[in-house]
Amino acid sequence: MPPTPWRAGGAQRQGRREVQADAFAVAGDQATGRIAVAVTDGIGDTPAAAKAADLTAEEAAAAALAAMPEVGCVSARNQLTVSGITADASIVTALFDPSHSRVQIAWAGVCRAYVLTTEGQLQRATYDHSLGERIRRHTGKHGPLPLYDRKVTRTVARHEFVTTSLPACSTVAVLLCTDGISQSLTDPTIVAALQYDDPTEGAELLASAAGINGPDNATAVVVRRTH
To answer: Which pLDDT tens digit goes with each residue over 70-120?
Structure first.
C-alpha cells in the first residue's frame, strides 16, 4: 500500500501554569497508512489533571487507530474510570485513513479542531462544550465570556461525545488544539502555521506564540497532507 498522505507533528508549552496538564498522542499503522491523533486538556492545574490528560490521550489515539475516533473517546473514558484518577479532561480525537473519503473527528469539552481547505480558508470543525458557548448560541451574543468559557459542560467522564467529519479531498491541514491555543491566537496566525510544509514546525509556531508567557497550557498538533 502507498505511504499515508498525512504527516503529523505536535508541540506544547506550559505557560504560566504550575503543571503541564495538556497532552497529545499520535498513533500510526504503516500497513494501512492510518493515523490517529488525540489532544487532551486536563481540568485543573494539578498533577491529577495531568495524569488524566496523559492517560486519555494515549488511550484515545490507540483505540481510534484500531476503530474510529468515537470509539477512542469511549475507550479513554473507560480507562479513566478504572484508573482511579479523580480529575477529568476535555478531548478531541481524529482519524486520517487513506481508504476513507472523510477525516473523522470526535470530541468533548473545549479542545478544538480547525481545518485549512484547499481554497485557503480556515474553518472550525468543532464547537466548544462550555457554558459560554451555550450562552452565545441561545442569546446571539458575540465575543468571549471569560466567566463562562472555562465552565466545561461535556468532558471525557461526563455526557456523550460528539462526532463530525471533513472531506479529505478538500483538506490541506487539520489543527487539533487545547484552548490555550484557540483562546490566545488569531485566525491569521493559525493559517500561517498550517501552511508550513513541516507540520511539526507549524505546531511549534503555534505553541510558542501562545504558551511561552501565556496564562494557560498550550498544545497543538498539526496534521498536513503531503500530496
So the answer is: 999 999 999 999 999 999 999 999 999 999 999 999 999 999 999 999 999
Overall pTM surpassing 0.70 (yes/no): yes
H-state helical runs in 33-165: 47-66, 69-83, 131-139, 146-149
Neighbour count for residue 144 (Cβ, 10 Å) = 11
The CA distance from 58 to 38, in Å, is 7
Q: Which residues contact 62 (CB under 8 A, 6 or more apart)?
A: 25, 27, 36, 72, 75
Instruction: Yes or no: say if 136 and 188 are a contact pair by the CB < 8 Å rule.
Output: no
CA torsion, ordered 68, 72, 74, 76, to nearest 10 deg: 180
- List the Cα angle 25/77/57 in 5-degree steps: 10
Residue type, 25: A
Q: Give the pLDDT confidence of 119-178 residue by residue, as tens digits.
A: 999 999 999 999 988 888 888 778 888 788 889 999 999 999 999 999 999 999 999 999
Question: How remote is the C-alpha of 6 from its chain's centroid?
Answer: 16
